[in-house]
Specification:
CATH class: Mainly Alpha
Distance between the termini: 47 Å
Structural class: mainly alpha
Number of helices: 12
CATH topology: Ferritin
Radius of gyration: 19 Å
Number of strands: 0
Order of helices and strands: HHHHHHHHHHHH
Shape: globular
Number of domains: 1
Length: 271
């Protein structure tokens, strides 16, 4: 029989992620995430209690409906800042999403937890790249309103790892693969070459994040005896997932592990 761990709970990786997850300062959240050590014991079978207050959120930006957000011409600094601010907000949410998966869902392989902490670190890097760029433009994260759609899906799927993995990285975050080339082209066309380079970094690493979502979604489906494609279609209806719209970045989606049956279904049904 294995001996029980004597390591204090806050020195286990699944509990340690609560530090950045609960942080109410955006930059601090990113920096604490980057500082998470990957060599801590993981305790994959140990329940971590909900401390409440998840996720920690800064006082700004004000969260509004996505339909209330307004854009401005990218030919103006404010217009470009609005677009970059929206991307920064997505990256900040993505930090919380990756960290939340680590502490919330128990009994998974150690590689599952290590994957999502690494993903959280990359999302933190993305956020800080954009935030630094915004500062150079005379703006900062929190200057503009933002929406909460990503975390709303996290709340709806908090009780089911199949739904969370199926609908957040494979649906909500995969939308970023489709949108990224057009966003990059708009920023470069507006003369912001540096932002275009940041978008290249984000797209390359987000492919890996969605690939992890695909890999672990198929794993949890297999362990439960579920058909991944049929289950995904059911999840879309059950959790009212947003309808995806073309154009799709099929090359990036293939690199992220979507198979041809999924891509054909996407083309026909928009999901």
């Amino acid at each position: 029989m294995a001996r029980p761990s004597t390591t204090p709970l806050n020195q286990h990786l699944r509990a340690a992620v609560l530090g950045p997850l609960l942080s109410q300062n955006a930059v601090q959240k990113a920096e604490l995430t980057l500082a998470l050590p990957l060599d801590l014991p993981i305790q994959p079978l140990t329940h971590v209690s909900d401390p409440g207050g998840i996720p920690g959120r800064p006082a700004t930006p004000k969260l509004v409906s996505h339909t209330a957000l307004k854009s401005k011409p990218l030919t103006t600094p404010e217009g470009r800042a609005l677009l970059l601010h929206a991307i920064a907000h997505i990256e900040l949410n993505a930090i919380d999403l990756a960290l939340d998966v680590v502490w919330r869902f128990e009994g998974l392989p150690e590689d599952f937890y290590l994957d999502w902490v690494r993903i959280a670190k990359e999302e933190a890097k993305h956020f800080l790249l954009i935030q630094k760029h915004l500062l150079g433009m005379g703006f900062d994260y929190g200057h503009f309103p933002a929406h909460n759609s990503l975390w709303e899906m996290a709340e709806r799927t908090r009780g089911d790892i199949v739904a969370r993995i199926g609908l957040v990285p494979r649906t909500m975050e995969a939308r970023g693969l489709d949108a990224s080339p057009a966003v990059k082209n708009k920023l470069i066309s507006a003369g912001d070459q540096a932002a275009g380079r940041i978008m290249d970094i984000i797209l390359e690493e987000e492919i890996g994040h969605v690939a992890a979502g695909n890999r672990w979604y198929r794993y949890v489906c297999e362990t439960r005896g579920l058909d991944p494609i049929q289950t995904y279609r059911q999840l879309i209806q059950q959790y009212d997932a947003p309808k995806l719209k073309s154009p799709y970045n099929l090359e990036a989606r293939r690199l992220a592990g979507f198979d041809e049956e999924e891509l054909n279904y996407l083309a026909v049904n928009g999901l």
